[in-house]
Amino acid sequence: MKTAAALLLAVFALTVARPASAADPALVSAALSLKAAFTEIGALVASAAGGPPAFNFGASGDLVAQIRGGAPVDVFASASPKDMDDLERSGMLRPGSRVDFAANELVLVVPAGAGGRIARLADLAAAGVARVAVGNAATVPAGRYAAEVLASAGLTAALQPKLVPAENVRQILEWVARGDVDAGMVYATDAMTRPGDVSVAATAPADSHQPIVYPVALLASAPRPDAGRAFIAAVLSPAGRAVLARHGFKPAVETR
Which pTM does this prediction carry? Predict the structure, then answer.
């Protein structure tokens, strides 16, 4: 049976079947949590390097699998340093192109109007809480951060039977919004996209998990390197940073 990553790669291959040309817009693979901000930043390079970039959003681990499988991607932006490290160690990044450009927080969200029965992480262990959605730690950085937070709070064993793994942060948001789960752990920026559907019950302490830092880099095999550089420059420009701030991202502190 094909894995989820293999299926995603097959679908992705169908969508980019046309041979790449250096005159084409950049193809950017980015963490799903960046979708709204990057789509807006893409418009900043609409008149340069062949037009606005094409985007492929998904869980960072799945995007790495696609790139390793030969997807003709120019730029990769991850929701964690780990996924970028995996590509860099394999020599798949253009040397000197990697930059940390944004930071985020992890929050506990509950369905809007659910009341105050879940107001802190420890409340998840209560008998009345049956299902807590977290990202699949194998492919979703938010899931790895959530695991670190629960371990720091001493809740890993108590919550293990209640955890429901999701394939990406937006799936967690949807489950929480519909009331399919009692709570979920997502990025603060994701919670901002559903203000009428979910409420933030708590923010994970910064020292309870690795820093949530977003790196971006040009791939060594980029078929459209100039267009890729133009998009990265737009992300790092004052206008690009203003877009990221408006969507709730914080300035990054370099981790390397």
Answer: 0.86
